[in-house]
Amino acid sequence: MPVTIPYWEQITPQQFFADIQPLNQPAVLKGLVGDWPAVQAAKHSTGEFAHYLQAFDNGQLVTTLLLAAQTNGRIFYQPQFNGFNYERRQYPVSAILAQLMRSAGQESAVRIAAQSALVDDCLPGFASENGNPLLPASVQARIWLGNQVTVPAHFDDADNLACVVAGKRRFTLFPPEQVGNLYIGPLDYAPTGTPISLVDFTNPDWQRFPKAEAAWEVAQVAELDPGDVLFIPAMWWHQVESCADLSVLCNYWWNGSIGTADSRASPFEALLFTMLQLRQLPAAQRTAWQSVFSHYLSAEMNDFNYLPADKLGVLGSDDCPSEQAINRWLMQQLQQRCEALKSKR
């Protein structure tokens, strides 16, 4: 059965980066942002919180998903994967808040999910009043606003601090190595932008997805109140349930391909290119390549000290001069493959 994610209190930046992040395990940072004015307003009343948030709204349109009540708010596919089960619209934050207030308590209400909007773009000034106590200002805040909505288990390739501002959130997390038990949907066609698990862990169908029981046995869960923060290490699968008529979360991604101005390229691209190159090979060759990949991906710099320093090439530092040459080579390979495919039509 799932275990409760451990929680920490009165965390300092030094403690977080020395004692928590290196564990590469989820952690609840209890009350870390409890002194935010936004959190204080939400704890007082929904109306006060809405008034507080609206004061920052500059009218910037925010990508918003609308789901019919019969979806139970679970962002997912249409039957037979023929599209997604929501409509995508654009609204300012004030309009979203007004609709959430009007529909509160209605079982037939449309489910609403404003997704991952940059706070500085749509709510300028909010971040300066509600600052992250652990991360530098270069890590940008994003806001998630809606009612009772479930995002299926998915992963991000960056570390994540998820700060609950209003309402309650329930998180179910799975270690990265459980990917084979989660029944992942299409890699290049997902309702959330990243691949999702097809298993609804709020009401799992073990007969249809028998391997998911193994993932469930090692799952970690947490319910967060306003002011609580969840640290989600990169690559951990997480299902997120919003449990209130007005639910707001701010999150911060860093150390990955999203979140900051110096974000790196996503390794997801390398996965797809590798699949393109290797999946047509015989099983024995795929296994051999797996050993080669494992060797070079797990190696440390001193593993290659048998080579002269000026001959390390791509085995050298991350910013080695050959990076541009490698990118050009990859682009040429993809272009040649595209031309070959065209010639076969």
Automatic annotation (TrEMBL):
Q: Which PROSITE patterns match?
A: JMJC
Question: Which Gene3D superfamilies has this protein been placed in?
Answer: Cupin (2.60.120.650)
Which residues does the UniProt record annotate as the domain JmjC?
101-269
Q: Which domain of life is it from?
A: Bacteria
Q: Tell me the protein's name.
A: Cupin-like domain-containing protein
Q: Whose protein is this, by species?
A: Alkalimonas cellulosilytica
